[in-house]
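User: I'm putting together notes for a lab meeting next week and I want to include a structural view of one of the chains we've been expressing. I don't have a solved structure, so I'd like a prediction I can at least talk through. The sequence is below, exactly as it appears in our construct file.
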Amino acid sequence: MTRRSTQILLALGASLIMSAASAQEVADTIYTGGPVLTINDDQPAAEAVAVKDGRIIAVGDLAEVMTRQGDGTEIFDLDGRTMLPGFIDSHGHVVFGGLQALSANLLAPPDGAVKDIASLQATLREWVEKNAEAVEQAGVIIGFGYDNAQLAELRHPTRENLDAVSEELPIMIVHQSGHLGVANSKALEIIGFDASTEDPAGGVIRRGADGEPNGVLEEYAFFSALVPVLSQLGPDAFLAFAQAGSELWASFGYTTGQDGRSSASAVEALKAVAAAGKIPIDVVAYPDVLEARDYIGEHTSLEYADGIRVGGCKLTIDGSPQGFTALRDRPYYDPVGAYPPGYAGYSAVTMEQVQDAVNWCYEKGFQILTHANGEGASDMLIAAIDAAQAEYGDPGNRPVLIHGQFMREDQVDAYKRLGVFPSVFPMHTFYWGDWHRDHTVGPINAENISPTGWLLERGMIFGSHHDAPVAFPDSMRILDATVTRRTRSGDILGPHQRVDVMTALKALTIWPAWQHFEEDNKGSIEVGKLADFVLLSDDPTAIDPETLDQLRVQVTIKEDEVIYEAQDGEQESHLRESPFMSDPGSGHRFLHAMYHATGVEK
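Assistant: Thanks for the context. Below is the predicted structure for the 602-residue chain, given as structure tokens.
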């Protein structure tokens, strides 16, 4: 070969290399400088990730990914932090999470400071004092998150306890489960509950020896007192809830949230706030199938509009296991309260209602998420899905079990046979594990609450959720509880039900992405998927599992845009002081709307 021929070939080769490089998409952003956990089994880790137009275009070695660098490419330095796909909310209530964010924090430690009725009263008084102007104009006091299981008295507060805070203003406090609440005398007067009021179907108005309501309201008695009031407020009143809730979710690394048991007004509020650019995450809503069937039929879609969509139906069969309102298949072990012998809880709806709702969703091909906590509730759900599949076949609607706290192994087998996706609640092992062991199911059956080990043994995928506002949407608390199953007292509840860290991470990412029919776009760091990321303070796969709860979300990124960045101590402040104080305008709008809805005289 002549020298001239060699020069021509070299020039041609250089030209081809330059053409190939220019043919590649040039990245808007390249993320590098820390561990990247992709949650993709085919490529579990990477050194760098390239993003263009909000989607991932390259994942791999630094040298390979850097070929996507152009003059305008931003290099995002992870600075040693660990990057994962953004978390997907397997079950929560974004809008009512905003209610939690904008009301008095009545949670027990470590998420709040309420340890007994005296500290609950003090917390309410402090909240009223800090928000005096808004409370005075609105004329109502709302608290969220008390838990009788964590109060020194081991009982619910009563109307008299709340009257000691205020007899002039109505007070409503919400149990941490969201299935019970307590009203003071003024609130009961406004609601219209007295000795002559009958218990509603699926609910209980607790009473004193004189037959008068003592303030404690269970299930549909509670919902009939609170939820319709909030629903009647309309989209304007829900705007503050929607924004505050979505921002709270983002602060814990969630890039996709869920609004379970939603309402038409709540979804419309989400849409309105999202259209204004104030919902930083995607939200999938599941309206109540018993209350909003027409709305579900008209709006269910796999496509987002401004980051909001209706994903299908929500059905609630029973109540709270820690509140003794979940439907069991046997008596509660040692319930605390005035319960009759053999008490096993109760269903909030009839079997006919369950079957009708499940049939409607199967006939329409809609996804249905069903709250079933006790074994008795699971028996009802399994029977209904069995009958619906016999009638309509499998429409590919990926039905979801929500909670399933108390399940028998035969029920786990049935859910696998029926193709039901379990969205379970391992955080219960931390928050109420000791309570379940001592009072709800006893020391033997408590070992198998939230049975992730049984699911894994059967090759089932599942989601791990927080059910906020039942608890804060604390992704690291979920991760820790799913892996360690340590209770507040330090006990390990069911060692055989523990799973490894990577399985627990999949239950926060790729598996709930599948649950929402979004596995092609979310849940792992792969080419073609959305650039939804979370940066953690350390690598959860490389630290002592007993320290997982000490990890902190540092940054949350939605489609290549930073939507949350932690300041020093910021997440800790979520657990102590209501974000209400950081946006007095939002709190004022909430209380002002409550004033108009309740019709309280100023």
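A couple of points you could mention at the meeting. The longest helix spans residues 3-23. The longest strand covers residues 29-37.

User: Perfect, that's what I needed.
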